[in-house]
Amino acid sequence: MILSRQLRPFVPALILAALPLHHATAQTGPMVGTVKTTDARFLYRPGAVDKNLRLTVLNAASQVVGSSDATSPAADDHVAKFHVTGLSAATRYTYRLEDITGGTAVPIAGPEDGLKFSTPLSTGTKGVVTAAFASCANATAEPVWQRMGLLGIDQLFLMGDTPYIDTADLASIRTKHRAFLETPFMASLIRSTPTASVWDDHDFGLNNGNGVSFAAGKPNTRRGFVEYRAHEQFGTGTEGVYHKLDLGVMEVFLLDPRWFSETGPSPVDPAKRTGFGPAQWQWLLDALAASRAPFKVLAMGEIWQDKKNSETDDQFTYWFERDALLNFIRDRKIPGVVLLGGDIHVSRHLIHRQRLGYDLHDFITSPAHTSVIPSLDVPHPDLEWSSQQPRQFLTLTADTRANPAVLTARYLLHDGTVQREVVIPYDQLTPKAGTGLGKDLRAWWNFDGDLENESVLGARMHASAVNGATVIADGGLRGGAVEFMRSASQYLVVGRSALDDNSAGHSVSLWCRPASLPAHGSAERHFLLESTLGGTVSNAAAYTLSLGFQPADDPAKINLELHTQNIQASTTVGATPFAVAHGPFPCVLDRSLFTGRWAHVVMTYDSTHLRLYVDGAEVAAHLLPQQGPASENGGLVLGGHRAGTGRNYDGRLDEVAIWSRVLAPAEITALHHGGSPEALPVEVSAADNEDGTSKD
Known about the structure:
mainly beta, Purple Acid Phosphatase, chain A, domain 2, Jelly Rolls, 2 domains, eight-stranded antiparallel beta sheet, 33% strand
């Protein structure tokens, strides 16, 4: 369920004050970092001075549970790190800081200054957790931190450009980290809220930077990041900053697409340059397979889709790793996964329908500061909502007390306005699959009385008639069919794509009974179908799917012609992937096959070949000059080409279907069924998986 709410203020129970600490002028922190069920990490900088310090954790009865001593050496910019063990899950604690340099403990700050935290739930127990995510922040983001404090969030995730560093100078890096953490409401928030971070390009050190373009500077930016974050893990220990945090009912994987990018061959395809790097890639696969949290958040500073500008810092640049990761999740039947990104100074919500055997929600939250970039709010076939507002953040609330468990995403403004609320029951994030020809069936129009889609994608793929295209009752093979009059430029339009982003394999099946074919010797073209770019008709090239008739040299023949587009990775560091058009691919057939009879046509795409089948038999196999997954498309025209009018089909279509996989020859024979097609199976059922079930 998705609710959009405008101007609905969140009314807090408490008003948070940004509380100063004793002698706070030169201090940074304390900051609560990684908190697990039995231990917690903290940092504190007492100023530009070496100190011996002690951090002590207290229970509800103010009894000492554990303590940790640390120093603040100049080599670490005087940042002291503490690690306290012996804690219990789902428990509230307070803590105090003391200066023990002189041998006698001198209080610095304590519970009266808001020093508190809670440990997370154990995995498998029932409960509720709310985490807040923010990216792109500077001093103007203070109202966001204030609002988070009012909400009483359980966990804070800083998702990159938090702060803006943009230098390789270590002294400047350290100064900027301190300034970011010392703003009043941020300082108040991090002393009582476990905080975890990952970087994006500006805190990595260079706008649009990657592991090669900022190779000389990244050791210093990593050093500053490590000094001013209290994480359990920083990448491999010497490279990168990736890590994860298990909150019991939700596990968050904080990914680093910067450090390793472009530095070597991809673990997925050695012919391409890596985004994640081999070590992070294997860590992520292993961690995902081992996770037993019901909800799993794959989070990074970049976005998972194409920014559609000249920059390369998005996961479209490394689509081969992104898609291999999503395929791993799908093939392993891992439930409960959502995506999260930041970076682009607008917030967005996309739903990649059935990408994992269930809908894949893709959340983008940005900016926390006041600078918005409307030009990055670009079209995408899976875009559901966007917001071009300043001072935004996102909360994810995982609640396993309900049955089924529920994940709720809220896009908030700093004043508490809930812009959008997305409620996702756990059973909508569990893999389901069809059987036989129902497996990976993404669209099916049987035209039995209407233009509705019968597949699992439902109303998303309903068609609309343009210029009077008509459903003819009992005019088809099993019932109705849709009829087009070329003279009236009639066609159907479908506003969404049935395929995954950059589909590596798909199939289209249809039955056609032309009333006329392009006249011999003419320049006529009669398109059966063609995909569109943005879900509306236009001449913009997005013909991932393209199938139509045109005259052949022989008057007794007709050319059933295919076109397609796919994407190619650039071999140049820092260059974006690009689309390549392929075709025309001719297939000359007897006109009699399409005259006065129903003909069955299937085309398949497997990233290497385009194949064409007529009446169950393969009639053409076209090798693609450049091989790769299909380029993005946003919708479909049936009975015409991508511009809608001008090259329209004349006659009837029936039983049009699209799969997100390549049909086998035996399946195509069965689909033809001797010229008498049967109804396709559309039911899906839960696939076996090891989910994160919750104990009572």
